[in-house]
């Protein structure tokens, strides 16, 4: 079942992937992000962070409020290079 | 928290250099190795770099070292049983001026002496390789097809898992807060307890001066913030890593399809401190440089950006060896943004030396003794830096 529950839809990270990362000792949100790649796609974790934190908390037997979210990275939303460059493009 | 065991060699810094060193030391067996790090794996520069692995350099020693490192990388996935997303699409260096073109030509001649197949190519040939390139941005180029890129993170897990299997104790989230010299060795204090080590290797990258200060030593390297961004994933189209000498721009397409790259920025004075904040000035500078080089990329979206520190010595060359004033305390740092690609080979030879084996020539060229008071300043030999 855990193999079929997708927590991060951008990067296809399943509940089983998160549980596996925790069994390897990666029990922190930043570590699980790196090991599974969750939260690194177009939504940058906006859709999946809560679900993944809940999964880590359960697998690592930690209270969810002891898990800090990962550092959020700019830009706030995916932004075209041409806009950032201040240029018109064809 | 698990108790930290005493060690023959304690490595401070669980980046690629420290972990590769631990793995190489443990592979030969017979030594108690401990690795400690204040953060988690991939927190530092090893988790923040662009993953380029190239053999194009301007000195024979660096070319040959990187040829050997490339060989290790090429077999890494199979040996360590982990996917490192390696793709060998080559490195394309673009020269915007005749002076830069002449420098590339000199370097290509050095590389030829080492048996590397880098070729100077005309702008049309570069555009045949990467048709998206604007034709007015460069006058010459060189290309070596056997260079490539990797995804940095799995290298750390690969080395860490292999080292741990051979008995290396890796303690992350364990910052070193004090080091006392005791007899011929050291007593190392962390929040997780104290432990003893006969020798220490500081592999803390841009944080090395902070670690060295704990034994009363001062290292001359300084951190320099470098930023990098990645775009939404695209269908594979960009074969080589592309770099531009004038702007320090570099961009490659990962196996995940994202474009990953950075650009030179004015060196902000971070006061000798490592700073990892992201700046809009980087994003806009990078976007301009990239869209000018490849106008078709204008509609591609930037998804994320982050920063990592280059670790720069006064002459640009790494600092590797024992500190004369602190017997038993070794450093391996100052790799100026290419420590990741050099770690596999540097760790191999440094491990052999620490076990009483042969002294590779880099241990002479990169000795910390060259910065001793009174020593005349020298110019580093290498000029093929990016970013």
Could you describe the 3D structure shown?
The complex is a heterodimer of chains A (90) and B (387). Chain A has a single domain, classed as BFD-like [2Fe-2S]-binding domain (Arc Repressor Mutant, subunit A, Orthogonal Bundle), CATH 1.10.10.1100. Chain A is built from 4 helices and 3 strands; from the N terminus they run E-E-H-H-H-E-H. Chain A has helices spanning 15-23, 29-36, 49-60, 81-85, and strands at residues 6-8, 13-14, 79-80. In chain A, strands 1-2 form a two-stranded antiparallel ribbon. In chain A, strand 1 and strand 2 form a beta hairpin. The model of chain A has no long low-confidence stretch (mean pLDDT 92). Chain B folds into 2 domains: 7-47 and 153-221 and 315-371, FAD/NAD(P)-binding domain (3-Layer(bba) Sandwich); 87-147 and 222-311, D-Amino Acid Oxidase, subunit A, domain 2 (D-Amino Acid Oxidase, Chain A, domain 2, 2-Layer Sandwich). Chain B has helices at residues 16-28, 60-80, 98-113, 123-129, 152-165, 208-213, 280-293, 339-354, 362-365, and strands at 7-12, 33-36, 52-53, 91-95, 119-121, 140-144, 148-149, 169-171, 178-182, 185-190, 193-202, 222-231, 241-244, 249-253, 259-262, 301-312, 319-322, 329-333. Chain B is globular, with a radius of gyration of 21 Å. The mean pLDDT of chain B is 95. Chains A and B meet through helix 2, strand 3 and helix 4 of A and helix 7 and strand 16 of B. Strand 3 of chain A pairs antiparallel with strand 16 of chain B, so a sheet runs across the interface.
